[in-house]
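User: Run a structure prediction on this.
Assistant: Running it now.
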Amino acid sequence: MTKKSVYQCVLDGSNVITHMRKGDDGIKAPNIVVPRFESAIAFFKSIGVDCKFFLDDATLQQAKKGKRPLVGDITTLQSLIDQNDVVIIKHDGTMAMFAITNEIPIVTNDQFKDWISGENTSKGTKDISSEDWKKLQEQNIGFKFAKDSNKFTLTKQIQSKLKSTRKATSKTPEDSNYLERIRQRLESLDDRTKNQTKKITEIENAVINLGNLFEDFATSGTNSNSSALIPCKFEDEFGQSHLCLLGKNLHIWQDGKWIEIAIGGNTKLLV
């Protein structure tokens, strides 16, 4: 079997799904409990551990042919096998070789005593020595179920693998005033934005006012002695600016009236 380093452990499905239970006659016998296998598969997915699932063909056939009491139904069991790429094996040697090749532990409560002692042999285990079996047994991770429950848990934690090898580049600033400085900069930017908006508004108003001045001047009935009027700005002795029209004389809009200032002399009120 090809090495797949993505896996972090192997699950002995037959060991999980088989459970000694009392029958109607009060005698304990091995039952095939589908919800236990389903719970184990869900457990590894919930903790983010990639586990390779194995199930003995003998166990599957016993469930299909009713040779052992079945808790759950065969349809659910087959769906679990199909949807989770469960490997159906003829003997534990296939599962053991996968674990050895990938250097990962087997999740099982089986002690492999027959394999270690050499009493149980098969063609598929000829390359696995008693020492290999013993080493596997020492590395095994056990499991348990709560009393009268099918909720699967491990006796020892498995470190879930990192989903990404890229390290985060962000780090907490050492300066405790870091966030305060950011807040102040944002406030300063906000103030500058408001100031620019105010200036734009003032310019828009000045343009509107200038347009109104032209309109008022044109409709005021005042006859200008100027053939051409030029918009300009006039600053008085008090430092105040006024929008004006410059022709032969200077026309200033003030207090709702036009004031014409003769550039060469007298000033008179325009009505």
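The CA atoms of residues 261 and 267 lie 5 Å apart.
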